[in-house]
Amino acid sequence: ILNVEQSPQSLHVQEGDSTNFTCSFPSSNFYALHWYRWETAKSPEALFVMTLNGDEKKKGRISATLNTKEGYSYLYIKGSQPEDSATYLCAFYNFNKFYFGSGTKLNVKP
Amino acid sequence: NAGVTQTPKFQVLKTGQSMTLQCAQDMNHNSMYWYRQDPGMGLRLIYYSASEGTTDKGEVPNGYNVSRLNKREFSLRLESAAPSQTSVYFCASMNSPTYGYTFGSGTRLTVV
Q: What is the pLDDT of residue A28?
């Protein structure tokens, strides 16, 4: 069982704040890392698929970076909005399956 | 709509009862997965099927069995339900790790 760690566990910010959180994963045998957004009572939805060291992906106000040599990825949200409130999961691919972190729960207050 | 369909959405079982959770995808994906989600523990892999005809254990397989009936369908069976199996179960599928999973809508199971 691989260890995929996310921090912080939860985050409370005000509307308009920028925020970031971390996913740590094993630095050996890297193939792919995924970020998912998971809203309450819904299914997780893919945000980013990251495969190369130094990858930077962006979707609107959300972006992610990847460092495979040191085994971490950052997710950034610029100017948080209440609709960004969700749990953000990262998942590390190893031998046909993904291992998920426990997620960062983001609450954005209006 | 194309995607992953899970049934049922909700189920209450008594300890010792059995049931099968159904999952079907219409995206021609090769790989299918069953996860359970418990508070504070993220998603944990129960079983997966990397391709039609194969199944493998994940992180928490005890108490479960699976069947990859064909390329579209992957079922999860609880032979004798226990309260520790109270959870939300998600089925997912994908074709390649360079693409994301597509998840079903989940099954909320309570074992009393």
A: 84
